[in-house]
Design a protein that fits this description.
There is one protein chain. It contains 14 helices and 8 strands. By secondary structure, it is an alpha/beta fold. It has a domain at 137-416: Nucleotidyltransferase, domain 5, CATH 3.30.420. Strands 1-2-3-6-5-4-7-8 form an 8-stranded mixed sheet. Helix 2 packs across helix 7. The longest helix has 27 residues, at 62-88. It is globular.
Length: 426
């Protein structure tokens, strides 16, 4: 750790170094703090929570101050004692951390980096959120899996920032990787759901589609995240395999509420750069078509919010308004992406098959799924590029879940292929 810290000043201005930190979780069955609506992405929710916590601390008065101070003192004493015990077990890892430091210093320019444990070792006890249900059985809230091995190489946690000036070069890198690393996770950052349709609808799924269609026609994506691996979750060691594409976005011309705009700024979106050097959607579409990622069933696409993520992709690739009905939308998705999985569908299927349909579940999100799968939380996962990496890790983990390998052979993982939650799957 000392070797890493001593070299932080040598990083370029456009690089960031994310330290591992424990993230506060909600209790299963409890809403997210502050009653955050689903219209915001994880990185926007994170910024909103920070603002609420600062207001709470600023508004403490009188006896509440004394009581809070006393409680804080008790908690800090207990935390310090636990931290001291934890540090005793970290001494043997110092030599391996020197190796990690060398990988950090060799990071290419224009990337973000989150530090993770070294060489596939299990994380220290305090590194995992306290409520991870890693070993719970069929009737617990978790999925009964052992902790996921940590990523083995620091480059696996590099996120390449892509702007107009390096768009072509980064797609050239993707073309070189796609033959071997043909599983790709997709995430999209946009300003949130701003309108809802009214009228009569054929079904609940039709209403969901019309809501998605209307918003995508009115909005432009702010960022798109892509992350590559092979079917076993292996990633290239010497180059980044996760990208965050920052799109051209002019705040004066876009439909966005002041609240959403403020939250996006707090979450780290640099709108001045988006307006000046953001990626043009037409250029992105052309290079994506030439990348080898589309129009082939040799590539498997993964998303947690597949309806919106694939919807923005179809909208960009066709350069036209969304289809009027969900059947035509499904046609275009399967035309461009012949093989895909929706993590929302998979995770709900796992809970149903494990007999947890009647058990109250935490608010369903990619983060709650990652917790159940034993994937540690990192600050990087609050970014759009980091979300694509998290979705990829979750997919690889779910693909190995033993419930898909029942002895009678009646259940096949592939039966959930090409299903989109809320569109053609409940």
């Amino acid at each position: 750790m000392q070797a890493i810290s001593g070299q932080l000043t040598e990083f370029a201005d456009n690089e960031q170094f994310y330290m591992r930190q424990q993230v506060q979780q909600t209790h299963p069955g409890q809403q997210q703090p502050g009653g955050l609506p689903q219209m915001f992405s994880p990185q926007v929710n994170h910024a909103r929570l920070l603002g609420q916590q600062q207001q709470l601390m600023h508004g403490m008065e009188g006896g509440q101050d004394l009581q809070a101070t006393y409680l804080l003192k008790q908690k800090m004493e207990a935390a310090n004692a636990a931290f001291g015990h934890q540090q005793q077990g970290l001494q043997p890892q110092q030599a391996q951390q020197q190796l990690l430091a060398s990988g950090v210093l060799n990071a290419p320019p224009g990337v973000s980096l989150v530090q993770q444990g070294v060489g596939g070792m299990a994380p220290p006890p305090g590194a995992l959120p306290p409520q991870l249900p890693l070993a719970t059985g069929v009737h617990g809230s978790g999925l009964g899996l052992a902790p996921v091995p940590l990523i083995h190489h620091p480059n696996h946690l590099l996120v390449r920032e892509v702007w107009a000036n390096n768009l072509t070069a980064e797609f050239a890198s993707i073309r070189r990787l796609v033959d071997q690393y043909n599983v790709i996770a997709l995430t999209t950052e946009f300003v949130g759901t701003i309108v809802r349709p009214i009228g009569n609808f054929r079904s609940k799924n039709d209403y969901h589609y019309q809501t998605m269609r209307t918003n995508i026609d009115l909005l432009n994506p702010v960022q798109i995240g892509l992350s590559l691996s092979d079917a076993q979750g292996n990633k290239p060691d010497n180059v980044p395999s996760t990208w965050q594409f920052n799109f051209l976005f002019d705040m004066s011309k876009e439909m966005v509420s002041p609240e959403s705009l403020d939250l996006l700024k707090k979450s780290g979106v640099a709108f001045d750069k988006h307006q000046s050097i953001g990626v043009n959607a037409y250029d992105f579409a052309q290079l994506l078509v030439d990348s080898g990622l589309l129009l082939t069933d040799e590539v498997t696409w993964v998303s947690f919010h597949a309806a919106y993520d694939f919807g923005f992709l179809v909208n960009i690739l066709t350069d036209a308004s969304m289809p009027n009905n969900k059947e035509d939308y499904e046609f275009w998705v399967q035309k461009f992406l012949p093989s895909f999985y929706d993590l929302n569908v998979l995770s709900k299927a796992v809970h149903d098959l494990k007999g947890q349909r009647s058990i109250p579940q935490p608010q369903h999100s990619l983060e709650s799924l990652a917790d159940e799968l034993g994937i540690p939380r990192f600050p990087l996962f609050n970014t759009t590029g980091g979300q694509s990496l998290l979705a990829l890790l979750a997919f690889v983990r779910l693909a190995k879940f033993p419930v898909f390998k029942l002895s009678n052979g009646s259940l096949d993982f592939a039966q959930f292929k090409n299903s989109i939650y809320g569109i053609n799957k409940e």
